[in-house]
Amino acid sequence: MEDYTAKDIIVLEGLKAVRKRPAMYIGSTDSRGLHQLLQEILDNSIDEAMGGFCKNIWVTVKGKTVTIEDDARGIPVDIHPKYNKPALEIVLTELHSGGKFEQKAYKVSGGLHGVGMHVVNALSSTFEVFVKRDGFVYHQGYSKGEKLTQVERVGKISDGIPSWTRAISTNFHFTSPTGTLISFEPDETIMETSEYSLETVRGRIEELSYLNKGLTITLDWNGTITTFQHQGGIEEMVRNMNKGKKTLHEDVIYGMIKFNGEMKDITRNNKTGDDSKEDSNIPSTYIEFAIQYNESVSENLLAFANDINTREGGSHVSGFKGALTKVLNDEAKRQEIIEDENFFTGEDVREGLTAVISVKIPEPQFEGQTKEKLGNSNVKGMVFSGVAEHLKLYFEDHPRVSEIICKKAYQAAEAREAARNAREMVRSKSSLYATLPGKLADCTLEDPEKTELYIVEGDSAAGPAKQGRDRSYQAILPLRGKILNVEKAAWDKLLKNNEVKNLFSAINMGPNDPYDPKKLRYGKIIFMTDADVDGSHIRTLLLTLFYRYLKDLIVNGHVYIAVVPLFRVQKGTNVNYVYTEKAKDALIKQLSNPIVQRFKGLGEMNPDQLWETAMNPETRKLVRVQIEDAQQSDALFTLLMGEEVEPRRDYIITHANEAQNIDV
């Protein structure tokens, strides 16, 4: 037994703990964690905006460097009475420090752990902060969490314009007398990537501009400048989310409720997050929601708590869903559309729903630093009662809208029952073999934590896949041609389509079934299509099906895409599999007279080649399908796979030059 003594106990001081275990603080060190760094700094400016102290934010992404400036109050720079250090230095170096632990400097905020800015500082190779306060500009620089300079005055301010007392590479965009500018570059020795996604950054900024009426956010993306401001708030957000879809009612149903001892509606022009005029010392909770139904069968619900996108939901989402289900059951019973007042399920009333729910609360309890789920139990009851009362009053004034929505829910309930009956016919494993005698090449193991289902194009690809696989845990399901485009198809066509039914049967999960990982027959579902246009189309059709009807499988990390090679380049006994034309050309330059084989499809590959490149866990390349931005994902599926032709054609023309590796 090896010695285990006091000398083996290590204390990570300062920000070293963050650098040692970065995923504890930003979720991961991949692209998602990289964007979390940007979001942490941006959220600080948003907290100022929620308090009414910030009107403008400027975000600059130039290569690897991110710069975020606001015209808010500016981080305090005076000496802290207890620690005898400038407050600016404390909030950059001491974990769990900041002004958001009590409702004094901030009534509501997204930051509550006091670690966000510290984490960005610790994980950046360079980190600079400039603060405008008290007629001066202050500066401090860091690298990997280590202080490079003291907090020092570097300029004076006259009419909001600084006159520099020393050479500075950074200029302010705003002529406000106060504000903060932070510039950082991620540490590539820790972060796996330093390449930001325009779609991700732009999507988050646009969300924030909807959630904060009157706030102007400017994005400078490598010299291209875009300004975001949405006076219509989340009403406008819902309307834009429904673009390209046929809505069931013209108006967006909107409500705002405030809880401060008693509940009352607030006019939609009232500024949320500002209770400075209230007599009570109790901080208020604000609930804002907007809904509009469309003719689709999908649900698109976005939820926010203190402007944080709570992708995994939480108590506010539970309260909202419960209120919607209760009110629509009551309305349908009153209109004699249903007999049982509990006839509709939550899935029924949310079919075709586009909605945004936003709460602003004094003491949010998020799960984890990335704050993807709200845990405040009392919020559920407030949201339920507030939304239910508001909807009831709205439907009393708009009976026609109520009738349309209730009839939509009734159709969903009928379809749910039909789907349930269809699923019952293919539930047992014996019936699966009877339904798919020659299609599904099953595996011998039944543990979903170990099994994999490869969905391939036709029998030609199924041949080498069946021969090359490890049949103990890998199953093969070939598709016959291109599956149904479910974005355009009605329920009856969905349930009658053999290829779609085969997929549901093989996975043992039907459209919108409750997610139960123990009932799944395969833990990994892998799309393996040809590396050409047809293969891309089939993969897109599969993604549409899973996003619309099996979304829980994506959310919980079960869906993957196999990256298959385009070329096999051989020189003597040395064999390389290459995935792009560019990589192939580069490799040919390194070798003299190699043998180059171009794979037109999976059916042309030998079983051992397919195993080595796409099926062997030790050598294959798999991409896990994730939903980074639900709003953008929903809009893109509607655009690319929906009924409207003109928007799709415009999109293709606009982005044609961005297409890569397309066969011609």
Describe this structure in words.
It is a single chain. With 664 residues, the chain is an alpha+beta fold. The chain has 4 domains: 16-227, Heat Shock Protein 90 (2-Layer Sandwich), CATH 3.30.565.10; 233-273 and 283-422, 2-Layer Sandwich (Ribosomal Protein S5, domain 2); 425-564 and 604-658, Rossmann fold (3-Layer(aba) Sandwich), CATH 3.40.50.670; 567-598. 35% of the residues lie in helices and 21% in strands. The strands form 4 sheets. Strands 1, 2, 3, 4, 5, 6, 7, 8, 9 and 10 form a 10-stranded mixed sheet that branches. Strands 12-11-13-16-14-15 form a 6-stranded mixed sheet, sandwiched between helices. Strand 9 and strand 10 (224-228) form a beta hairpin. The chain is globular and about 75 Å long. The N and C termini lie far apart (65 Å). The model is unreliable at 98-107, 109-114, 266-280 and 426-434 (pLDDT under 50).
